[in-house]
Amino acid sequence: MVIDNDSLYLYNLTLKHSSSFNLSLLGQFLGDKKSQEIVVISSTIQLLKPDVNTGKIEIISTQNALGVVNCIDKLRIIGTQRDLLVLTSDSGNLSILEYKDNKFISNYQIGITKSGFSRINPGEYLLVDPQNRCILVGAIEKNKLIYRIQSNEDGKLELSSPLEVNTKHLLTVNMTALDSEYDNPIFAAIECDYGVYQDDEELYDPQSTPLQLNYYEFDQGLNHIIKRKSKSSIPASASHLIPLPGHIGGVLICCENYLIYDSPNKNIERIYLPIPIRQTSTTSIIINHVLHRLKKNNFFILLQSSNDDLFKLTMDYNNDTEVIEKFNIFYFDTIPASTSLNILKSGFLFANVLNNDKLFYQFEKLGDDSTETIISSIDYPDLESINNIDTANVSFELRGLDNLALVDVIDTLSPITDSSFVEVHSDTSPDPIKQLLTLSSHSYLKSLIHGVPVSTLVTSPLPIIPTDVFTTKLFSKSTNDEYLVITSSLSSKTLVLSIGEVVEEVEESEFVSDQITIGIQQVGTSSIVQIYSNGIKHIKHIKNDDGETIDRKTTDWFPPAGITILKASSNNNQVIIGLSNSEIRYFEIDQSDDQLIEYQDKIELSSPITALTIADSRNVKKSLFAIVGCSDETIQVLSLQPHNCLEILSLQALSSHSTSLLLISDKDGKSTVHIGMDNGLYVRTALDEINGGLSDTRIKYLGSKPVSLSSVSLATIPQAVLAVSSKPWICYNLNESYKVTPLLGTKLSKGVSFISEDIGGEGIVAIDGNDLIIFTIGEEDTVFDQNQDFNIKKLKLRYTPRKLVVDNSSSTATNKVVYIAESDFGVKGPYPSFQSTESTKQEIDEEYFDAFGYAKKLNSWATCIQVVNIVNEEANEIIQSLEFLNDETILSMTKIKFESTGSHEHLIVGTSTNQKFLPNSCDASHLYTFKINPKKQSTLEFIHKTELDEQPVAIISFKGKLLVGMGKYLRLYDLGQKQLLRKSSTNISYLTNITKLVYQGGYRIVIGDARNSIVFAKFDDEENIFIPFADDIVKRQITSLSKLDYNTVIGSDKFGNVFVSRVPPLISQQSDEDWSLVKHQDSYLNGSGSRLDNICEIYLHDIITSFHKGSINMGGQESIIYSGLQGTIGLLLPLASKQEVEFLNKLELTLRKYFNEDDDNLGINLLGRDHLKFRSYYNPVKNIIDGDLIEKFFALPQSTRIKLSREVDRTPKDIEKKISELRNRSAF
Amino acid sequence: MADKIREQNDYNRLKAKYIGLGNADTSRQEFLTNIHRDTLASLSHNHQLLLYNSIILNQNPELLRQSLIKKMVQPIKRTEKRSEKD
Fold first, then answer.
1. Least confident among A595-609, A820-834, A1065-1079, A1159-1173
2. Structural domain boundaries, residue B43
3. How many structural domains is chain B composed of?
4. Which candidate from B19, B48, B61 shows the least CB-CB separation from A1125?
5. CA–CA separation, A962 vs A964, rounded Å?
6. CA–CA separation, A475 and A1019 (whole Å)
7. What ipTM does this complex have?
8. Model's pTM, two decimal places?
9. Does A1126 sit within 8 Å of B48, measured CB to CB?
10. Cβ pair A306:B63 closer than 8 A
11. Is residue B14 part of a domain?
12. How far is B53 from chain A (nearest CA, A)?
């Protein structure tokens, strides 16, 4: 790649993967006989493991697919205990994956079609025969392939060459695999033959024209596929197929309001069964089902309707005569609409909820004692009796959950309709809280803050103002910490408290209480050392036979006169102290009687000691090194080995003096030095175990205050570091990466870990001001989930939110509001209009609507605006709701300060009445003007409304006036007394439907169009119109657009492409300086005279809904944060230098090449998809380096890393450092 | 002449295999029908587009997918074709 100096280079990094799980599948992928796991597919392949005992779901592996998965199913080779995952994807391969070593790896790949998508490419449907004999892959139109599953001599899976069934003019609407036991495999499909409708003679009506039910039987003897039509056609409303277990056979066809039983066996008659209908509705359409087998051929089916209701279907089957006696169905419960349901053997139900958090339920009962009306097929012998049914017989009343109980929730963001990046400044903390607000359909405002929440257990004031805190146990064998020692440097006092059911002062501890304590350590088997400013006190506990302490023997050590102890560090076997004359003294513990033995030598350092540490005795018995920080901005490594004790081994200069040091040795014997510095930096560096050298330094800025570090141990992370600067952070290793995460909801100046059964294990005790705080990490009742980088707070809204406007104007920290436009199609809202003068406040049961949804009504709209205060500490709060009636929908919203009216701010809302889609039409369009009242928490006051002749899809503020994009018109409005006044109108003939407008500064705007991509335009004062002067070179369907600088915009289209376009410098200059040159340029190819430069391009496999500029971490580099419809949150980081671009580009090429050729089962190229082709799905990827691929470097074994890094002329350490440094520039 | 017939036969054979294949004689209506079918198939196939449309229409994606496939039967309404002929 030739690196262009002027161009922009971006680095794409996904911070939160898409969470819209298109598919979920239950299976035994671990091969453990007892447990079942769930695979969910979005842009990643995730394996979820439900814990049967606690009812919690744990994500055990997440792999970025780097491709598009179409369909999944599972397969088991006969004679094995584990399921394999079968999938079709946009690579055109049929991929079979196996779970091994904590990840899926590719087991078998076979090409079935060209890559990409076409309606005749098989892959839309994927069905595995329940007896694992063959796989059917089907396309939307015409083609189907059947592969026979074989295993070769080694027991390895093999697929035969495919058998084809090609039927001209045949569209497949839905397909399923029937359970045929030992007969030939049979597949059933709902299909439609359009051959008959080719010429105009016959008209097809999707509402009434019957569909076909076809059976595809794979004759194993003849190796041939037989296609058979069912006896008669099926109704047009047939949408879902449910195969019944093998001993019964056949299939249930779900139609609107009833089910049909059909069997490939021609001698069996059809059976009809009505579906219960909820009282407030007239239809019940089944969208998914789950069949659960009980013992002895017993089973039941749960069906979910599009109204979210679950029904339980059972059947009476006579095993002797092999005749179906009847089907029974009744109302079971109502849970949110799901794309798939999975029932575990252990009695849990996983609901892969369509538009919200995924839910995990436990069955309380199976509805056996249900009082609901049971509908039986015996009462409805034929279709006519179904058609003439009395709805009273099948309707049921809604009720709360009866048979199911919710046990766990998996937070997801999908779908994000709009988002905003907000910084809230508060009085309590100097650092702004950065949060990403996202709007999610069905219907929430979610605020994402990077960090983990803490739950505070105790807060109590102390008699002294504490400066440091310690915890210790008394005996090496105890598990619980017994003493809590608090010291104050201000009043030179030490307070010893005992930890138990009550915290109380300990009298007989023998500690020195009128001095500042510098360290407390349990040493040997039963002694404690108190290091205080004027000496060391050694206290040995003598126990009687009952284990009670009967005596304490104390020994003292004093420093030379006039010298005090400044710093100390210790472990069970060693104590090291730093004195005020810059001397280091070193002690070891005599194992026989716990006494301290001073090492004869001492070392005097050149400058005062600021910090000191040795390794704690958790993983090593004895620390081999001591790290000393000096005020000359260095740290020095001292040896503690007998042959060269207290010898300086190495020295490293820092940017500031160290205030806190930690040496941590992990289980593998690797040592890391953690340095907290005076200037707020936190540095980690690796310590060489042999020569004491320091290398591989990683830096992170934590805050404006000096950093103090302490080692803490938590239930889920045995070795973490608590770092406190202007705010507290928790730092730990997780899967090859090192996480530094802020703690939310607490403030502290110093914290240490402590263990006590009274709080249920490990906690942290901390001091803040005059208070003592005890807290645990993670929210109450939940385990600390290390995979969650963001803490998500939710606020329920009324309808599907569409647009978010943040009120940035209010300077007070207590009041920051956002305005949310919400609208739902096809439902009727229960709330009264904001304009209604009646004060009848009827009670509206919001919980009812939350559980069961609003009443459906064809072509109706429910719309409102809500005002939310986002500064509230506990939760965001709705302060105003304005309901719109008359089937209006909100299309656009903006905040504006009209030039003509001075300082008042207004909110303008664009609406349309009776909006319909396909084709797009409406009866009327309006602009509502609201005044923002700063005195009343920025709530809204209605002023007037203005009628328009087209839908106002995009509105922005432009130089103190309102700019409205409607159809192909641009209009400028100013505020009037009775309505808005039109000031200018421009018709841009080659645009179709303006969807986005962006103000670039000066007189320049950018117009985003639904079909014709983007256009730069300038407002011409003389003619009072906008004149377009540069167009995009690609025709795109713009979904979002944002300004990068005066000449540059970033945008995205409906297909998932993200691009950056820039006006050529010459044109830009001319448009400002020689406007008449540009203004009168000739039109070129049905557009304006010049074209934009396309400078960046990438495919992201999600529809991007908004872009924001900013940085998630403090003081980070400004980058572009984007949010996608399927719940993706990512970052586009501008690359700093040419060298960096060159290096990353080379690395990307090397990795791409390696992964495409890779066959050593690393679980990286699971789909067999070429990465370059994936990122260039629609347009070739340009100037954007894919960080998601680059970070796969961490998944490689060490030998491969060395091999690949040689190809890019770096060391693996260099590359790892670079990758994590890039991530830390703007995120975490 | 024989070449021309063979060419025609080859074309027909390919057209049967790869639907949507066209040549200079393809009528406007056939071309449009094909484009519409391709678009509808793409809308029903791509998960994110399906989700996008299902949120706007407040309809279940699976039902929307099926209705889009059903639309592929006669993507251009008869009345539109009539008016084209006029």
1. A1159-1173
2. 26-74
3. 1
4. B48
5. 6
6. 80
7. 0.91
8. 0.92
9. yes
10. yes
11. no
12. 10
